[in-house]
Amino acid sequence: MGKIIFISNRLPVTISRGKSRFTYQKSIGGLATGLKSYHEQANSIWVGWPGMLDEDATAHEKRNISKTLRSSYHCLPVFLSREEYQLYYHSFCNETIWPLFHYFSEKALYDTDAWEAYQAVNQKFFEAVEPIIEPGDVVWIHDYQLMLLPQLIKDAHPDTQVGFFLHIPFPSYEIFRQLVWREDILHGLLGADLIGFHTYGYVRHFISSVQRILGYSHNLNLIQTEDRFVQVDTFPMGINYDYFRSIAIKELPKSKNRLSTPAGLKTILSIDRLDYTKGIPERIMAIDRFLEAYPQYREKVQLHLIVAPSREAVDSYDELRREVNELVGHINGKYSTADWMPIWFYYRQFTQEQLIGFYRESDVLLVTPLRDGMNLVAKEYIASRSDNEGMVVISETAGAAGELGEAVIVNATDNNGIARGLLTALEMPLKEKLARNKIMHHRLRRYNVDFWASEFLNSLAHTVRISREKTPYRKIDKEPQVILTPYKKADNRILFLDYDGTLVGFTPTPDRAKPTAEVKQLLSNLAADPKNTVVIISGRDRLTMEEWFGDLNVNLIASHGLWTKDCTQCNWNMTITLNNDWLDSIRHVLDVFSDRIPGSFIEEKEYSLAWHYRQSDPELVASKINSLKETLSGLIGSMNLEIQSGKKVLEIKDNRVSKGFAASMFLKNREFDFLLAAGDDVTDENLFDTLPDSVYSIKIGSGSSAAKYNLNSFRSMRSLLKKLTEG
Q1: Which of 5, 27, 199, 260 could serve as 12's disulfide partner, Cβ 3.0–4.6 Å?
Q2: Cα end-to-end span (Å), the chain
Q3: 630, exposed or middle or buried, with CB in 10 Å at 0-12, 13-18, 19+?
């Protein structure tokens, strides 16, 4: 087995310049703790920014830092300039992705320079990690700063296992669609074999965006892209449960780890980083509502509001801090007495041990973010309360709420609801508290951070194995000689080439897929070789085929095999005699469903009808298409008709017509020593099955197939054909 390569924005080691030397400080908690056991394995390595800017060290110092990090910490640093970090991290990550993904779309800024810096830094990470990737390695990329990196790595190392985990929420399609560079971000993420999220809601949002924006379908969260399968799944991140559980309060210096709470008062604890997503002002106003609605708790309860400083140089965060200060002052002024103040506000950092001490002496933890990917504080609090007598009040928009169903769940924007939730937590009978906490403790103990990491890596290996089983054909993107060598040796060749999806990509409407000058020149060059017989085989009607390819020296098969045209003749020939008396009755049904499904339309051919839905809402199509198929099946049951499912299209045609039958007519009474057939969807499978075993059959894109070989996309196919023409 190869090594594991972890990649994140920050290394689990922070470097700073001391008076005489650089100091190296290991990170604790969160991701660093969760991946520690894997990172310490021989040959594993962590790639990331070391916390030091390019300008803060000389080239010689950076070489020494890199050497120390590699030998002593199993880390590979990626140094960034001040401008890169400002545009990539502060601008794009924190001013575009962060607000948008947390549903604060009004705060999101769209700066082209920042986007270009984001692309450049992702490329820089790729260039740093690419030389150390070897066969058998596993690459695990983390979080929103590196969403383009999976595709960069997969393109260069297609056989490498690549996983990606997003630690923040993934927004709904209606929010995500506002991102200017949405397609690039989705394509970047889909370079991974496995994409992990904290909750199923985020999985659902991601799949919906992929369906609606890129048009990729899925089955049980397995997305089928152009060239591969990508699994999307839920992996709620755990904590180091044993660490929080085992540290006894007596082991902590009491003077530093106690809250200033007079005896007899109930303690409510709130811990957050300063950020508008955390709902801190709303939480303070909920305390106001609580004291107003339940005056019996005045002078009986105290909130300890701990806010860790964050992004103080950003104006909006400085305004948020002032707002929090003003609200705290207002409520303390409104309710305080000579002996009691309702809110104690701490704007500072505390150590992990200090926080554990605070956890253990607080009656209630109040966690009400407006939106949060997970929120590990709630889990840490429960694990730290070894007596099982605390209670968590948590908003439903925190990712952890899905795992902590026994806690008191509230709406972060409902002050009355939060007030009632606090009352419920404070007055909950001890027996009920013990029972609820016991269940949550058991869950957190089992699904700890080690389990989270191992579950993801095991799922990644399983996903890659399943994907390979689904694609048993040989991928030849990197080894074109498989085709080139026998092609060059042959004297009499025939090439059957599908058009849509094989020579060109799909377009919103069929008429927009007209061949470019590049495609026509490529076909012309192929046909110019006297050893070649080129056949374009398509589901398109003969008039379109004539218009697009009639001026080339190529043979044509139209309407899935109904019509053929030899390049030496002027006339089209039918492969079978048909009638179209059935068109009106089927068209009526398709008209009804087209009216019900905006974006869909009917393409009428001479002897078939095609219903296209590429521009329709995929969820709406999914809810209606089975009904359409059942209705059509009932109508065509006694006819020689079939429903043929293509890519975002249903076609009703005579079941005696096939590409394979039409192709076989070009083989009659002729001897070929090289046969090639290429196609991208189910309509081409009959062609692969019908041709002789000696055929070099190529499936374009992902999915099961009878073809022997595979190319990633129509671009790969065009690249291969170009190599054939180069001799």
Answers
A1: 27
A2: 40
A3: exposed
Can you name the residues that pair with 447 across neighbouring β-strands?
A: none
pLDDT digits (tens, 9 = 90+) for 320-363: 999 999 999 999 999 999 999 999 999 999 988 899 999 999 99
Place 727 in a pLDDT band, splitting at 50, 70 and 90. Answer: low
Tell me which DSSP letter residue 515 carries.
Answer: P
Mean pLDDT of the chain: 92
Residue whose tokens read 């150590």:
351
Q: DSSP secondary-structure letter at 96?
A: I
Q: How far is CA 330 from CA 265, 309, 334, in A?
A: 21, 21, 6
Q: What mean pLDDT is predicted for residues 695-709?
A: 89
Contact of 194 with 221, CB cutoff 8 Å:
no
Residue 653 phi, psi dihedral angles, 5° rounding: -145, 170
- Which pair of tokens denotes residue 603? 């393409």
650 beta partners: 611, 645
- The predicted model scores a pTM of 0.85
For residue 173, give the H/E element and its range.
Answer: helix 173-176
In the numeric block, the tokens 């383009």 are attached to 148
Q: Is the pLDDT of residue 158 over 70?
A: yes
The order of strands in the sheet holding 493-498 is 474-475, 709-711, 696-700, 674-679, 493-498, 532-537, 555-558, 563-565, 573-574
Query: Which active-site residues does the annotation give?
Result: 498
Q: Nearest CA to 347 among 393, 395, 384, 312?
A: 312
The conformational region for residue 529 under phi > 0 = left, psi -120 to 50 = alpha, else beta, is: beta
Q: How far apart are CA 464 and CA 219, in angstroms?
A: 16
pLDDT, tens only, 231-266: 999 999 999 999 898 874 455 555 555 676 677 899
3-state DSSP call for residue 344? strand
Instruction: For residues 698 and 410, give the distance between their C-alpha atoms in angstroms, rounded to a whole number.
Output: 55
Confidence category of residue 27, pLDDT binned at 50, 70, 90:
confident
Q: At residue 258, what are phi and psi to the nearest 5 degrees? A: -125, 145
Among 689, 704, 679, smallest CA distance to 503 is for 679
Q: What is the DSSP code (8-state) at residue 516?
A: P
Which residue type does 461 have?
Answer: A
Asked whether the beta carbons of 608 and 652 are under 8 A apart, the reply is yes
pLDDT of the residue at 47: 97
Degrees to nearest 5, angle at CA 369 with 363 and 372: 120
- At residue 600, the 3 state secondary structure works out as coil
Helix residue ranges, H only, 47-147: 59-73, 82-85, 98-101, 112-129
3-state secondary structure 39-55: HCCCCCEEEEECCCEHH
Using CA atoms, how far apart are residues 160 and 124, in angstroms rounded to an integer?
19
Does the pLDDT of residue 473 top 90, yes or no?
Answer: no
> Does residue 184 contact residue 151 with C-beta atoms inside 8 Å?
no
Residue identified by tokens 């059509």 is 632
The pLDDT score that the predictor gives to residue 659 is 93
